[in-house]
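Q: How would the C-alpha cells look for this protein?
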Amino acid sequence: MNVKLCVLSVGALFFLGQTAFAQTTKKDTAKTKVIDEIVVVGVQKKKKNEITQAVSVVGGEELTRMSASSTGITNMLQGKMSGLQVSTNSGKPGEPGSIRIRGAVNVSATIGASDPLFVVDGIYMTQRQFNSIPATDIESVTELKDAASTAVYGARAANGVIVVTTKRGKSGKPAITYDTRFGFAYKPKDKNFTMMNTAQKIQFENEMSGLGVNPNPVYTPAEAAELMAQDHDWSKDILRNSTIQYHNLSVRGGGENNSYYASLGYDSDSGILQELDGFKRYNARFNFDQKVSDKMKLAFDFGIINVRTQDQRYSYNALSPFYSIYTLNSYEPIYNADGTFNSTTNSINPVDLRRNEVTTDWRTRISGQISGSYEFFKGLTFKSTFGNIYDLRKNKYVVKKGSDIAKVYGTPDGSIRDTRSDFWTYVFNNRFDFTKSFGQHKVSAVAAFEYSQEQFGSLSGTKRVMLGPDVTDVGSASTPFAITGNTTTTRYVSLLGVVDYNYAGKYLLSGSIRRDGNSRLGQDNKYGNFWSASAAWNLAKESFFDVPFFNDIKFRYSIGTTGNISALADYQNLITVVSGDYGTDPTAGPSNSYGQPNLKWESKKSQNLGVDVVMWNNRIKLTAEVFKDDRKDFLYAIPNTAIEGGGYLFSSVTNAGNIEIKGLESELSIDIIRSKDIDWSVRGNISMLKYNVKSLYGNATQLSLDGTTFMRVGDEPTVFKMVKSAGVDPTNGDALYYKLDGSVTNVYSSGDAQFLSGKSTLPSAYGGFGTTFRYKGFDLNADFSFQTGGYSYNIMGQNLSDFSAYNQNLSTDAFNYWKKPGDTNVLPKPNVNGLQSSDAFLQKTDFVRLRSVEIGYTFDKKFLGESLPVNSIRVYGSGQNLALWTNYTGDPEVALASETQANGAFIPGSISLYNYPNTRTFLMGVQVNF
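A: Here is the predicted structure in C-alpha cell form.
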C-alpha cells in the first residue's frame, strides 16, 4: 500500500482539527449557546477570542478515551494536536513516548533534550513525572507553540511548552464517579515479514551449505527429523497476553465559599513478558479552595503516586528477549536432556534470563502546592505560590546465584545492585495581576518574580556472593564490589512582565519580557532576556463585514525569543574533577568533559502567522499557521577538544551551530450533524516541516552524530551518510554500489559513503484525524495518527535477511536471493561476507495507524429511575493499535524510538533495533456517576 497516498487522501477527507475542551452546546440545530471557552495560555487564562498566540487544547475527556491508562499521557496525545509529534517508544507498560513540538531537535547525551517544558498547575515536571499523572485527574492539556505563548517561560521554552491543568472542585452537590476497566494486550503479527519455521530453516541451511556459505554439511534425513521433532515457537515461550485492570474513584463538590476535588486510583498492566510483573500504579490526589473573605483566597494541592515496574534488558544484543524471539532457531530446545538450560546459539537462554536477571524499580512521587491571593481593589490582585515535588526512586538489579547467566557474567555466586536516588524541585512564585476595562478598551498586565531549584542525589552499591538465589537484600551478600554516588543542584531565578490590550474584541495586542538566570551556564552568560510581541485582528467583528455564516475570522502574528538548556547537564560549564579509589586509597582526576566558561543559552527566534475561522454557528472551526524558527547556538558535545596548554584531549559541550525550521500546520473540526438525538463530528490536524542546518561551530561544515547520521550545512539535521546501493547485478548476483564519482562497482568500501540529501530521521509531515458519533445513549469514537517523510536504518530487517547469519533464525525474505542470470528485485548471491551496510535497508518510516476505537452506551437517570442513587452508568469497550498501514519492515514507530549513542549523542530513529513492540489492547469498562 502507498502510505503517503493514503495519508494525503485521508487528510483531504478529514483535513485537520481538534475540538476544544471547554465548549458546550445544546443539542439543537437551530439554537446553539456557546459558553466562553477559557484557555490556559502560559501564565494567564484567556477567553478563546482574546488569544493572539498559537495554542492547541485537548480536554481530559478526550484523553480518557485512550483507555489503556498505563500507556501514559504522552502516548495519549498522539495525533491530537497540530505541531505535536508523539512517537510511541514501545509497548512497555508505563513507558513514556518521545514528544516534540514543531520539530524541536537537539542532539545531546541528555535524554529528553528535545522534550518540551511540562508545567502542571504551575510546577515544572520532567516528562516521566508528567507521564505518570492519571488521565482521569486532568482537566485540560494546552500546547504552547509560538514565541508569544512560550516566551513567558523564557529560558526553558525553546522546545515548546505543555501546560496541564488538573481537575478542581466545583460548587454544588458532590459528584462522585467510579471508573473501572479490565482487558488484555498482546504482540500483533509482524508487519511485512514472516519468520522461518523449522522446515524452512533446515531447507535454508542446506541451501547455504550447497553454496559454500555454511561450512556444515547438508542435514541427513535423520538429522532433519530430529530437529523437526524439537520444533517450537520461542515467542510462545517468552511472551504472553498481558492482563490490565484499572480503578478510579473521584469526588468533586463544594459550597458557596469553598470547593474540593479528591481522587484515588489503582491500575496495573502485567506486560507481555512471562513471569514479570510489568507495571503497577497507586495514586491519590486532593485539592481544596477556600474563599477566606471577599478579598482573600487560599488553595491547597496534594498528590502522591507510587509506580512499580519489573524489566529485563532491552538492549540490541542477546540480552534482549525480543532479540531471542527473532534470532533463536525454532528447533533449539529450552532445556537440555538433563534439565539444565540450553545455552542456544546466542550463548544465553532467554528463559534463564527472565527468571534469574531482573530489574525492579519503585518510584514514589509526592507533590504539594499552597497558594494565597489578595485583591487590593477591583482589578489588582497579588498571588503567592509555593509548589514542590519530591521524587524517590529505588532500583534493584539482581543476577541470581547459581544461574547460568551468572556464570556467563563471571559471577557464579550472584550479584545485587541496589540504587537509591531522590529528586526535589520547588518553585516559589509571586505575581501581581492587573485588569482594567473602560468603554470598549481592556488592559491587563502581569508582573512576577520566580525562584526555582532542583536537587538530585543518588547512591548505588553492588555486592557479590549472594546468600541464596532468592535472598535479594544487598546487605545479605558478602563481597562488596562497587559504591558510586553523586549530587547535583540547579537554580533558576526569573523576572517576568506581560501586557495585553483588547479593543472591542477586534484589535488585540500582547507583549512579554522575561529575564532568566541559571547556574548551568558560563560565568559571563548566566542571564538572558527573552521577549515576545503579538497582535490579532478579528475581521468578523468589523461593522463593514456582514457575512452571516462567519462567526469569527481572526488573523494573528507573533514574534519573539525563547531559550533552552535542557541539553546541558549540571556543571558542564566548569572543569570538573572525578573521584574514585585505587586499592584502598582515594584518587581524583579530571573528568572526560572539559568545561566551557563561555557557554550560553541555546536560543530560538520565532515568527508565526495564523488565522482562526469559525463558521456556521460554530459548526466548522479551522486554524492554520505558518511559522519560522531560527534555533541558534544549539548545544553539543564536541569530541577531541584540546585543553589549554596542550596535552590531553577532552570532549567539550559548546554552542555548536544554527538550525532553521519552517512549517505549516492546521487543525479543523466539523460538526456534520448536531441535533438532540444525533451528533456526528470529524476532526483532524496536520503539521508539515522543513529543516535546514544554517551553520556549524568554527569553520565546520559537517558534524558526525553517530557515524550514520550527520549535521551538515545545507541539509536537514540527522541526515544519513551511507554507501548507496546500486542493486544486484542480474548477470552474476553481485551486490553493486555507487562510488563517490557516480560510477558503479561490485567492491564494497565504507569510503564510498555519501550524504543522502532529503533522507533524515525527521518526518516532513505528521498528524491525526478522527470522528465521534452519538445516537441517543450510544457513542462511538475513533482516532488515527499518521506520519510521512522520515527514514530509519533498519538493522533488524537487514539482520533477518542476512544469509551469512545462517546459524540464527531468519525471515523468509532471506530465501529471495539471486539464483540464476536474469533474477531481479532480489538479495545478492549469498557469500560469507553477508549483507554490507548500505542504504538498501534505509527505509521510510511512513505509516497510518488506527490508534483507538471506543464504543459505549450510557444509561441515563430516566432509564435508571429515581429510586437508584445513580445519575448515569456508561458501559464501553475499546481497542488500541488496531491496524497499521506501512511499507516498513516491522513497526516504524518502534524504529523511531530506537536510540543510538556515539560521541555523546542520542539520535532517535537513526537505527531500528529489537525493542519492546507496540501491543494491541482490548478493554471493557464501566463508569458510574453518583
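The chain has 14 helices and 46 strands.

The CA atoms of residues 209 and 215 lie 6 Å apart.

Upvote if useful.
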